Amino acid sequence: MKTSEIISRLQNRRPTILGRENFREFGILIPMIEIEDETHLLFEVRSKHMRSQPGDICFPGGRVDESDKSELHCALRETSEELGVNQENIRNIIPLDYIVSDFGRIIFPFTGTLHNPEKIVPNPAEVEEVFQVPLRFFLETKPKVYQVNFKVIPEQDFPYEDIQGGRAYDWNAREMSELFYYYQDKVIWGLTAKIIAHFVALLQEKKKN
Question: Which PANTHER family does the record associate with it (predicted)?
Answer without folding.
Answer: MITOCHONDRIAL COENZYME A DIPHOSPHATASE NUDT8, NUDIX HYDROLASE
